[in-house]
Structure formats: structure tokens, C-alpha cells
Design brief:
The complex is a heterodimer of chains A (182) and B (289). With 182 residues, chain A is mostly helical. Chain A contains 7 helices and no strands. Chain B is rod-shaped. Classes of the chains: A mainly alpha (182), B alpha+beta (289). At the A-B interface, helix 1, helix 3, helix 4 and helix 5 of A face helix 2 and helix 3 of B.
């Protein structure tokens, strides 16, 4: 149920992001909600469930990505899940600074993979410069908003499940949550 | 047969034991195929169509909702800076109004000066200098304006004609290097030798001294034929103050004429309204003199 909720939240975020940003003429500064959701899943879920949820999240992101090729984000987010699962052992993603750092790493890696897959699979691909030009700004924006989105996902988790047993590292102490509550 | 069943069973066992790796491998390979297939940009796959249709509907819905909510917020709640903007707009409005007023005034003055120039050109035999009305005094007894000239060369004398492009305004009654007082035609002391234009009837224009209207009276000999309404009165030049042929006014209502000794008295509406004039010409002499 929590996976479905997280995927729905990602879809809603993808939906509302563009009209809100366009009101302020900031369409190019979108937050990579899919990536942050995958990081959250990697930090708080079991491997199989989190992986499948990341894969479906990728499908949702693909649906909302105008002009992209279907399957791109499914692959990317699935790989990002595996990468962030590896990083979880070294970084505590439930604290803001490590989370922001990992978000930047994953975002940049994702951009590189996006470029690679685009070159291999997309026959109309030509936006080489804009991809690299926006890689760091997008990573910075995603990193900046990652703690907020984590708090949102955490709030959904808490509402749906009451508590979780995956908080072995003092989850969300920075967000005001009590230890072991999620 | 039994061997084959055992092989299949062991395969399922292996897959079950390695289900995580298997699922991950499948889910990683599947998107690669999808990318390969959709990378050709045919756009006709069922999954692509369905996902675009679903996402499109959701996006359309959220765009509409967001636009309405933000429209509401911007129209009614988001009033930050409105006061500042109002103050700025008010300030700008005042500035523009002032500029418009100034432009209107300049346009009026420009028009007046152009007409005065035309007047000077049309009376080339006269020496005229421009002057500005700087003071107006309307007492119960006298109607006098004070004019100022810019020229240092001319000394204003009494009994110089003061005219505008519309006609005669009055005559100077006192003079100096720069300033002079002008007795208006409406002053009860004012006398101007006139004639009815095109009729050759001579007369004397006398100021009415009336406080409420700018009018004068024309005294015409009893022997002359009655004048009609609207008859134009011009200067005759016989008083040697006002040059001949400058418009003075017109007859108002002949039925209201009166007998005054050996003269008939007509009410005359004056051509120049002193209240609406700011620039005048002072006739300082003729070029023949």
C-alpha cells in the first residue's frame, strides 16, 4: 500500500510541478521527484519491493516526460535504486546532508546514463549540450528539495502504516520524528 | 519423462531461490527492449498510447485546477506589492497629467503666438512689439490690464494701441521701459473712433463700464440708417491711436438701441475677451512715421 501511495504522490508531484513552475516562468527548474522517491524507497524498503516500486515509478515518470522514450526512466530509476542501495550502507540518507550529497551523485549519474541510453536508443536524440548544461542545476535543485520530499514520504508512511521497523538508524530525527517511529 | 519433470522442478527451485536476482534481471532487461522498440519513434505502441493518454488527462486536469487556484490566489489573496504599485501608478498618473496640462498650455500659447505673428504680418505698415499681460485689475471704476514687454529699446507711451489677433484690446494709459497699463475697451473712459465695416458709417465706441459683461456702446449719428445685428465694427483710424481696419466687435441687438442726445446707441459685443488673452501686440508706431 505504501508503494502505491508513494507512486501516486510522485505522479501528483509530476502533474502539479509543471503548471506551478510555469506560473513563475521556471519550467526548466523542475524537481526530480522520481529520483528522490527512489532514494527514499532505497533507504526505507526491502530490496524486491523497493526495486519493483522504483521500476513502476520510472514508468510513471516516463508517462509524464514529454518527448522521452518509454522505458528510459524505468531503466534509469531501477539502476538508481540499485546504486542508492549500495550507497545506503555508507551514507545515512535519513539525514539531510548525506541525503543531499547522494541526491547530487545519483542525479549526475542519472544524467550520464540518460545521455548514454539516448545515444544508443533514441534515433532523434540531438540535445547533447542542454543535457550537460542542466545536469548540475537540476542536481542542485533535486538535492535542495530532497529533504522536504523525504519528509513528505515519511509523513505518508506514518499515516498509512503507523510505524515501520526499517528505521534502524534513527530515521528522520532531523525532521522531528522520534526514533523508531517509522 | 520423470527425468524431465525433475529438471523442470529443479529449475523452478533455482528460480525461486534466486527470485530477487531473476526479477531484477528481467525488470532491467525489459526497459531496454522497450527503449529499443520506442526509440524508433513510431509512436503506435499500445503501452505508449495508453500511458500518454492517461498522463495527458491527469496533466490537463491538474493544469486546469492549478490555473484556477492560482487565478483565485492572484485575484483575491496575492495582493503583495499592490499598495506600492498603486502608489507608483498614482504618482505616474499625476506626472502624466501634469505633462499633459503643460503640453496643452504650450499648445495654447504656441497657437496664440502664431496668430499674433500672423497679425504682425498682415499689418506690415505697423510697428508692433509683443507683450505679455502680467496683471489684471478689475475695479468697480476701471478696467485695466498691465502688460510687460521684453524689448529694452522701446519706451511705452500713453495712447498706444494694444491689439490681439482677434481685434482691439485697449490702449496704454501709462508707460515705461518695460511695463504699461492698458485701458480696456470696456472701461467707461475708453473712446475709440470706429466705422461699420463695408458701410462707411462712422461712430464712437464708448466703454460700458459694466462689471458683469465685456460690452461697449457704439454711438452713431441719428442721420445714419439703422444697423443690423452682427454688423462688424472696425477702427476708423480717426483718433490717431488705433490703426484703421482692426476689428472691435459686432452689433448685438439693434432693437435695443437707444437715443442719446443726437446719437443712437447700440450695444456692441467686443471681439476680444480680455480674460482669455495672455499675449498681445503693442502698436508703437507706423513704419511711415
Amino acid at each position: 500500500m505504501r508503494y502505491v501511495a508513494i507512486i501516486i504522490v510522485v505522479a501528483i508531484l509530476m502533474c502539479i510541478q509543471n503548471p506551478i513552475l510555469s506560473l513563475f516562468n521556471m519550467e526548466t527548474w523542475g524537481i526530480d521527484a522520481g529520483l528522490v522517491a527512489v532514494l527514499y524507497l532505497a533507504a526505507t524498503s526491502h530490496a524486491l519491493g523497493g526495486f519493483v516500486a522504483s521500476w513502476i515509478t520510472g514508468f510513471v515518470v516516463d508517462s509524464f516526460t514529454l518527448g522521452g522514450i518509454l522505458g528510459m526512466h524505468m531503466e534509469l530509476l531501477a539502476l538508481m535504486f540499485l546504486l542508492s542501495r549500495g550507497l545506503v550502507a555508507r551514507f545515512n540518507l535519513l539525514r539531510p546532508l548525506p541525503l543531499m550529497l547522494v541526491t547530487i551523485i545519483c542525479s549526475v549519474t542519472k544524467t550520464l546514463l540518460y545521455f548514454l541510453f539516448s545515444v544508443v536508443f533514441d534515433r532523434d536524440f540531438s540535445n547533447y549540450d542542454s543535457i550537460f548544461l542542466w545536469a548540475l542545476p537540476h542536481a542542485a535543485v533535486a538535492a535542495l528539495f530532497a529533504p522536504l520530499l523525504f519528509a513528505l514520504f515519511w509523513a505518508i508512511d506514518r499515516r498509512l502504516l503507523g510505524h515501520r521497523d526499517t528505521d534502524r538508524q534513527g530515521l528522520f530525527r532531523w525532521a522531528g520524528a522520534e526514533k523508531g517511529r517509522i | 519423462m520423470l527425468r524431465r519433470k525433475n529438471e523442470i522442478g529443479s529449475m523452478w527451485d533455482w528460480l525461486y531461490r534466486h527470485r530477487l536476482g531473476t526479477i531484477i534481471a528481467i525488470l532491467l532487461v525489459l526497459p531496454l527492449f522497450m527503449m529499443y522498440f520506442h526509440g524508433r519513434r513510431s509512436g503506435d505502441s499500445f503501452i505508449e498510447k495508453a500511458s500518454i493518454a492517461l498522463a495527458g488527462r491527469l496533466q490537463s486536469l491538474t493544469t486546469s485546477i492549478t490555473a484556477r487556484v492560482f487565478g483565485l490566489v492572484q485575484s483575491y489573496l496575492w495582493l503583495v506589492d499592490v499598495q506600492e504599485q498603486n502608489a507608483k501608478l498614482r504618482e505616474e498618473n499625476e506626472r502624466l497629467l501634469a505633462e499633459a496640462l503643460e503640453a496643452k498650455q504650450l499648445s495654447f500659447v504656441n497657437g496664440e503666438l502664431r496668430r499674433l505673428l500672423d497679425l504682425k504680418r498682415s499689418h506690415e505698415e505697423l510697428r508692433m512689439i509683443p507683450a505679455v499681460i502680467v496683471g489684471r485689475e478689475v475695479t468697480p471704476f476701471f478696467r485695466v490690464n498691465r502688460v510687460k514687454i521684453e524689448s529694452e529699446d522701446v519706451i511705452l507711451q500713453p495712447d498706444m494701441a494694444v491689439v490681439t489677433y482677434q481685434g482691439v484690446l485697449g490702449r496704454t494709459i501709462s508707460g515705461g521701459t518695460k511695463f504699461a497699463d492698458v485701458m480696456l475697451l470696456t472701461d467707461s473712459r475708453s473712446r475709440v473712433a470706429c466705422e461699420v465695416l463695408g458701410r462707411g458709417i462712422l461712430g464712437m465706441l464708448v466703454g460700458s463700464g459694466a462689471l458683469d459683461v465685456y460690452q461697449a456702446r457704439l454711438l452713431v449719428s441719428l442721420t445714419e440708417v439703422p444697423l443690423e445685428a452682427g454688423a462688424v465694427i472696425v477702427t476708423s483710424g480717426h483718433d490717431r491711436v488705433f490703426p484703421r481696419g482692426i476689428e472691435v466687435g459686432y452689433i448685438l441687438d439693434p432693437s435695443r438701441r437707444r437715443l442719446a442726445g443726437q446719437f443712437v446707441e447700440y450695444e456692441v459685443a467686443l471681439a476680444v475677451n480680455p480674460a482669455a488673452v495672455s499675449h498681445v501686440m503693442v502698436v508703437v508706431g507706423t513704419k511711415e512715421r
